[in-house]
């Protein structure tokens, strides 16, 4: 699908609109899309200021890799306080992806390593092609994840698997990655972006408030005690079903005007 419009957020981050879907491209192919502070801040600004009509987003990487992690050539010596504030800057940027206005689909290929995996784990759906591989080499480099990976990655694969990856430097291939939960979809080499766009286009047709509830309420409900979660669910359900769009869609279904669920 050809883009409607394209714009350069910075030289390292490109934004293209495909209908209601914002496609965000990491554009440092010579550096395997390694993350420096400028790119992280550009991602933050991009997701905090998506075009008004955006209903879903896709993140992908230019070249042979999604993202090879932190750009170690720009790693600076920091004292403990400076290091903490730097990590919190990353947290704010990736929170803008995870806790923004619209669902985000990651199209993964090649390296999804270190900070690249932290970025992918902030997205709501991950599509990997067969070239994808995952790693968390921070443990073998004497550092620790600082971009939210210690919170997000264990929710996908469990603490034990993440600990193994960090302690041993283990590299996880695309097939194993899908099996353990690093991606929800595994597609042939070179087709991750196409699949991600297809999913995002479908997601963009959902009621915006339902998408927002899935992004913001569902993760919180999962972490609440059962009785709190059930109460939050009841509140969210009542709000979502009260919107004019929800009422119109239910009415269309009852009148036989909406498509029924079909086996894929």
Q: How do you describe this structure in short?
A:
This protein is of the alpha/beta class.
List the helices and strands and how they pair.
Elements: E1 5-10, E2 13-18, E3 21-26, H1 37-48, E4 56-61, H2 80-98, E5 104-108, E6 111-113, H3 115-122, E7 125-129, E8 133-135, H4 149-157, H5 159-168, E9 172-173, H6 174-180, E10 185-187, H7 192-203, H8 208-223, H9 226-241, H10 244-254
Parallel strand pairs: 3-4, 4-5, 5-7, 6-8, 7-10
Antiparallel strand pairs: 1-2, 2-3, 8-9
Helix pairs in contact: 1-2, 3-4, 4-5, 8-9
Please tell me the overall pLDDT: 92
Beta-strand share of residues: 15-25%
Q: How many structurally independent domains?
A: 2
User: Tell me, what's the shape?
Assistant: globular
Task: Write down the secondary-structure element order.
Answer: EEEHEHEEHEEHHEHEHHHH
Radius of gyration: 19 Å
CATH 4th-level superfamily of the largest domain: 2-enoyl-CoA Hydratase, Chain A, domain 1
CATH architecture of the largest domain: Alpha-Beta Complex
CATH class term of the largest domain: Alpha Beta
Number of helices: 10
Q: What is the CA-CA span between the terminal residues?
A: 23 Å
CATH topology of the largest domain: 2-enoyl-CoA Hydratase, Chain A, domain 1
Spatial order of strands in the largest sheet: 1-2-3-4-5-7-10
Instruction: Please state the structural category.
Output: alpha/beta
Number of DSSP E strands: 10
Largest sheet: 7 strands, mixed
Helix proportion: 40-55%
Task: Give a description of the structure.
This protein is of the alpha/beta class. It has 2 domains: 5-203, 2-enoyl-CoA Hydratase, Chain A, domain 1; 208-254, Lyase 2-enoyl-coa Hydratase, Chain  A, domain 2 (Orthogonal Bundle). It is 45% helix and 17% strand. The protein has helices spanning 37-48, 80-98, 115-122, 149-157, 159-168, 174-180, 192-203, 208-223, 226-241, 244-254, and strands at 5-10, 13-18, 21-26, 56-61, 104-108, 111-113, 125-129, 133-135, 172-173, 185-187. It has a 7-stranded mixed beta sheet, sandwiched between helices. Strands 6-8-9 form a 3-stranded mixed beta sheet. The chain is globular.
């Amino acid at each position: 699908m050809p883009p409607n419009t394209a714009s350069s957020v910075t030289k390292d981050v490109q934004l293209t609109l495909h209908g209601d879907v914002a496609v965000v491209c990491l554009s440092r192919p010579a550096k395997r899309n390694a993350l420096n502070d400028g790119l992280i801040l550009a991602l933050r600004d991009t997701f905090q200021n998506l075009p008004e009509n955006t209903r879903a987003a896709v993140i992908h990487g230019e070249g042979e890799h999604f993202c090879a992690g932190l750009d170690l050539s720009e790693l600076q010596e920091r004292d403990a306080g400076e290091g903490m504030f730097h990590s919190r800057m990353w947290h704010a940027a990736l929170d803008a992806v995870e806790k923004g206005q619209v669902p985000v689909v990651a199209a993964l290929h090649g390296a999804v390593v270190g900070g690249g995996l932290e970025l992918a784990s902030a997205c709501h759906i991950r599509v990997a092609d067969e070239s994808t591989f995952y790693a968390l080499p921070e443990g073998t480099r004497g550092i620790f994840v600082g971009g939210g990976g210690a919170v997000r990655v264990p929710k996908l694969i469990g603490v034990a698997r993440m600990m193994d990856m960090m302690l041993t430097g283990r590299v996880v291939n695309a097939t194993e990655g899908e099996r353990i939960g690093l991606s929800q979809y595994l597609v042939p080499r070179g087709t991750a972006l196409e699949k991600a766009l297809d999913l995002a286009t479908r997601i963009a047709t959902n009621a915006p408030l339902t998408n927002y509830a899935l992004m913001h309420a569902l993760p919180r409900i999962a972490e609440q005690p059962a009785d709190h979660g059930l109460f939050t669910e009841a509140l969210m359900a009542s709000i979502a079903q009260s919107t004019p769009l929800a009422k119109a869609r239910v009415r269309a279904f009852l009148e036989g005007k909406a498509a029924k669920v079909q086996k894929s």
